[in-house]
Structures are given as C-alpha cells and as structure tokens.
Design goal:
Blueprint: H1 2-10, H2 12-20, H3 23-26, H4 30-47, H5 50-55, H6 61-67, H7 69-93, H8 96-110, H9 112-134, H10 139-155, H11 162-167, H12 170-179, H13 199-218, H14 221-239, H15 241-251, H16 257-273, H17 286-301, H18 306-329, H19 333-361, H20 389-409, H21 413-433, H22 436-452, H23 457-471, H24 474-481, H25 489-508, H26 517-524, H27 540-571, H28 577-594, H29 604-621
Length: 635
C-alpha cells in the first residue's frame, strides 16, 4: 500500500492538480479576491441577519414537555410501562435464539472456520442422505459432495481467529487503507483471541446444521434464504441496534420497501427494549414530528378513501420509527462509521446501475417522462432500482451533498480520492436522470453548503457555471434551458394541476382528503382542469396539505424549522462532524426546494430516506456524540 501511495503522489496527474490547487496560483488574482470579499460579505450578512437569528433561537421543547399536563400523566404511567419493558427485555435476553446467536458470533470471531464447519458439515451430510434416499445422484455430483464433506471435516480442526484471517486478506487491507489509513495488523476485534469449542457448543451447532440441511432440501432456495434472514435478523439487530440503521442505509434504494420497513421495525423495538443504554436527550423536532403522525392518523380516519388510507398509515409509523432510531443511534463512532460506509456503498451501487442502464442497456424512456416533441433526442432517462428517473434524482439529491460534506471532513488524501470518485459517479448518474427538479435541488443544496459552511466553494460554483455550457452535450443544455418554459408540456401540466389543487384546498383544508394517491385521485377528479389527470399534486407542500390538512402542513414546516434551527447552531463549530452535518442540512434544503416543483414523497423509500437523514441531523445537532473523524467529544 505504501508503494501505491508513493506512486499516486508522484504521478503527473496528481502533481498537476496539486500545482493548480496551490494558493499562490490564484490568490493574487483579482477574480479570487473579489469572490472572497463577496462570499465573506454574504456569509456575515446571513449569520447576522434576523432570519438567521430566528432559526437559531433557543429550543423550548424540553421545558414545554416537562411542564405539560400530558407529560405529567405520561410520567405517572412511566413506572408500570418501564416494568413491562424490563420484563420483556429479560424474556428476550434469556431466550435461546438471542443466547445462541450471541454465542455463535463470539465463536465465529474466535474460530470462524471451525465454527462454520461444525454447522455446514451436518447440514451437507443431511442433504446428502436425503438426496440419496428420495432422489438419485449422478456420479459426478456425488464425488463433488463427498469432496465438500472431506474439506469440511478437515476444517473442524482449524483454530485460526477471524482477526488473523482478515489481516492476511488483500481486500481487507485495501479497505482499511482507504477508510482510515491504519495498518490492518493493528486492528483487533473484540473476542479475537483464538479459542476452542466446548462439547455443548459443538452439539448445538450440529443440531442447527442438521435442521438447516433439512430445510434447505425441502424449501425453495430463495425461501430458505428468507427464512434464515427472518430467524437471524431479529437477534442480530437486538444485539447490535446500530446494525439495523446501517442495513437500512444500505438496502433502502436497492430492496423492496417491505424489507426496509421490517428492519426499521426491528431496530425500533430493539431501541425501546434497550432504552437505558442510550442517551436520554430528546431529538430536535420531536414534538412537530409527533404532531405530524397524529395528523396522519386523523387524515386516515376521515379520508374519502378510508380503507386505502388506513393501509398507508403503517408507512407513516415507519417514518417516525426511522427518524427516532437515527436520532438515538447516530451518536457514536461505530454507528456513524458503519452507517456512512453503508450509505456510500449504496449510493455507489445505484449510481453504477444507472450509468449501466444509460450506456449499455439504453432503456427506452416512457412517454410520460419526457416531452418527445421538445426533446426528440432524449431517448433514455435512467432510474436504476427506483420507480422513475425523478425518484432516483430525489435520492441522489439527498445523498450527494452528504458525500460533499464527507469529502470536506476527510483529512486523508486517499479518502478524498475515493470520495471524489463516488461524487463523480453519483453526479453523472443524477445528470443522466434528466430530472430538472433534481438538478435545481442539487444546485440549491450545494449553494446552501457553501453559504453555511464553506463560502469559498462559491468560487468553484462560479467557474463551473461559466465553463459547463462549453462541455455539456446539447441534450443537457436544452433540458436546462427548458426549466420554467411553458412550451414544455410537463411544465404546463404542473401549473394546471397546481391550480386545481389550490381549488381543492378550499374544501379540504381542515383534515385533508386522506393519505395515499387513491384518496387524492378520488377527490381530484371533481376539480380537474382540461382533462389533466393526476395521482398527486406535483408539489410536496400542496400534497401534504391536501392529504393531511392544515395541521399536517403546519407540522411539516414546524419540524423543518426546529430541525434546521438546532443544526445551524452546531454547523458553526470547527468539528469535522460539522461538515457532515452541513452536508445533511444542505441535502435536506435541496430536497425541500425540489418539493416546490414535484411531489418528492411519492416513493416511500424516498420518504424513509428523508426521515433517516433528518434523524441523523438531529443526532449530530444534539452535540451528544463522539466525533467519528477525530475521536474527540463534539463541541
């Protein structure tokens, strides 16, 4: 790895970048001085403005909660509720699955090959016997199975710790080198010393192996994998709740919503049962978030399509769960590193898939996604694993500013190189969505990041704004030029829907039409203009107001106000985590700005991502965390 570092630092490309990044090259220019003066003026004006003071006033929620009559009633019920939770916690912790998984993980860290062999050998033997009895083996398949059994038999006696195996892995060394630059040999796992399996451990592992082999034989392979996940995942998340948050960050854009909701629910239950092990401070915006959920329940109860709205209500519960879990768990170095690493991997995977769709698959663009008359050359808009290009743009619009904050927070050259690659790939994928709203949202997000944390970034933005038209293809520049043009059928269509939605607000301002697209469509058909059918209002705030009434819209705005007011105070600190927080804030600002032109909460996965980011922002803004970059207490 040292040779790779020396080679990168001595390469011509890196030396050219270092040359042009030297302050002496550009600090003496009139343009640089002028931009610096302007950026300092804007930053000082913003920080000293009434608007800034309004957003950074002292939080009063904690005192209001303590002094409220409702809270006094809750406190009276706290003791019996706590007793019930303690009983449930004791039952769970004494259960066989939790004890077995905890013991198995410890054994796997101490002797991974022997532990795996004690499970896989009985499992493979069971499959061999069942196939021999109920089916017929080809000689070739039988030989392969016997060779596997022999290999597993010899693995029973291999007593090498997981730390020893990882330290000799090139992939592991590369990850360690990129992530923190430490020597992988200095990294040790808890319980990493080599141990031995007791007779009881061997018998338990053998029984599990036999049962797994029988299930593998009789069940479909995918069903078997799902069953194993259903059995193991609750125990793993209960033992390590941070794992649930990290897995959610990983699979949110990649897997169906059902899987994400299941992991979120397990994580929330684990946090409740282990409440004593977490900090007691309430997250910012807890009151408006609860009010938002209450208004969702009222809207579902009085919906014009009550059955469909009640089906959508559990999703809103999941939104609050992920917000609360993120605000509670995203407070220590291990969780921060795991969540951010999984999130970067997820963004990288979905971006590469989108780029693959554009250049290799060339997926055709649906007629509803583009005005063919105005953009005949726009043949492909990528969407990766999400519903449509706008949804993918919304997800990347939240993630890219966070990556930008990570880039600024990183102090190592190799980390900056890795983040630069991910930023470039994700930005290219965002461009290939051709989502104009997402482009505008990202532009506002980067501008917000520059204003609240790094004003000199405005220089780069200005340079990009000047040079970009010379290098961008015509299909992109034409798409940008069409923003706000009424000649584009999509823009005219949105204005028609907004007018109809405002008319609807006059009659449904109190409790809304109900949750979900079915309730909106049923009410909208009476207000539709010129046959412009729609399943949502193409505006986040109009849609929330129409679905949940004035109370829901007020709760959303209040929640944003409280969250940002807490975050803007912490952003002013010099901690490296303040750059990460600035990236999250910027992403949320861009997302909410994008909501002015589209209903960015149409996909439940995007809504869960929003609430997760909001919870992460609340956790960092609380100040009760260890800076994952420095290991020091955050200011």
């Amino acid at each position: 790895m040292e040779n790779v570092t020396i080679w990168m630092q001595n390469s011509l490309f890196i030396n050219i970048i270092k040359f042009f990044s030297r302050p002496a090259i550009y600090q003496s220019s009139v343009l640089y001085r002028g931009i610096c003066v302007l950026s300092d003026f804007i930053s000082k004006a913003f920080r000293g403005s009434l608007f800034r003071a309004f957003f950074t006033n002292k939080s009063w929620e904690n005192n209001a909660i303590k002094e409220s009559r409702f809270m006094s009633v809750v406190l009276k019920l706290n003791k019996p509720i706590k007793k019930v939770l303690d009983i449930l916690t004791n039952i769970v912790e004494d259960s066989f699955p939790i004890n077995f998984v905890s013991k198995a993980v410890k054994l796997f860290i101490q002797v991974p090959l022997a532990t795996a062999a004690h499970i896989l050998l009985p499992s493979a033997a069971s499959v061999l016997i069942l196939k021999a009895v109920f089916e017929s083996y080809t000689p070739k398949a039988l030989i392969y199975h016997i060779i596997l059994l022999i290999m597993l038999f010899f693995a029973l006696s291999i007593k090498v710790s997981l730390n020893s195996l990882l330290s000799s892995s090139i992939a592991y060394k590369s990850c360690k080198w990129f992530l923190d630059g430490q020597d992988s040999n200095s990294f040790t796992l808890k319980h990493s010393q080599t141990g031995d399996l007791s007779r009881q451990d061997k018998s338990h592992l053998a029984v599990i192996g036999v049962l797994a082999g029988i299930l593998y034989y009789y069940l479909h392979k995918l069903t078997f994998i799902k069953l194993c996940g259903l059995i193991l995942m609750p125990a793993l998340i209960y033992l390590w709740p941070w794992l649930g948050l990290a897995l959610t960050a990983l699979i949110l854009p990649l897997a169906p919503t059902t899987y994400s909701v299941g992991i979120i629910g397990l994580t929330f239950l684990s946090v409740l049962l282990k409440n004593d092990k977490f900090k007691k401070s309430l997250p910012a915006a807890i009151i408006p978030s609860i009010l938002f959920m209450i208004s969702a329940g009222i809207a579902a109860a009085f919906s014009v399509a009550r059955a469909e709205s009640l089906k959508a209500l559990p999703l809103y519960v999941a939104y609050f769960m992920i917000f609360y879990c993120a605000s509670v768990l995203f407070c220590d170095s291990k969780t921060i590193k795991a969540v951010l690493a999984f999130l970067v991997i997820s963004v990288m995977m979905i971006s590469l898939l989108g780029i693959y769709q554009y250049f290799f698959v060339k997926v055709p663009t649906a007629e509803a996604w583009v005005d063919v008359k105005q953009f005949p050359e726009l043949a492909t808009r990528v969407y990766a694993t999400l519903e449509n290009p706008n949804v993918l743009g919304e997800y990347l619009g939240l993630a890219i500013p966070l990556l930008l904050g990570l880039f600024w927070a990183s102090g190592k050259f190799r980390q900056k190189c890795l983040l630069t690659i991910v930023l470039g790939i994700s930005t290219l994928c965002l461009v290939l969505t051709f989502s104009r709203g997402a482009w505008l949202g990202l532009a506002v997000a980067v501008l917000a990041f520059a204003l609240i944390k790094e004003p000199k970034l405005l220089i780069l933005l200005l340079i990009l704004a000047i040079l970009a038209p010379m290098f961008l293809p015509s299909v992109v520049t034409n798409r940008i030029a069409s923003i706000g043009s009424l000649e584009d059928s999509s823009n005219a269509y949105r204005i028609t829907i907004w007018i109809a939605a405002l008319r609807m607000m006059k009659n449904y301002w109190l409790n809304g039409v109900g949750l979900g697209s079915t309730a909106f469509a049923r009410a909208y058909r009476d207000y539709m203009i010129a046959g412009a059918s729609a399943i949502h209002a193409h505006n986040l705030y109009l849609e929330v107001g129409l679905e949940m009434g004035i109370l829901g819209l007020f709760a959303l705005l209040w929640m944003a106000f409280r969250g940002f007011s807490e975050a803007l105070i912490y952003v002013e600190s010099n901690s490296k985590m303040s750059f990460v927080l600035a990236g999250i804030v910027a992403g949320l600002v861009g997302h909410l700005f994008h909501g002015l032109f589209d209903y960015v909460w149409y996909s439940p996965r995007i809504v869960m991502a929003f609430w997760m980011y909001f919870g992460m922002m609340s956790a960092i803004a609380s100040g009760n965390l260890t800076d994952d970059m420095t290991g020091e207490k955050a200011a």
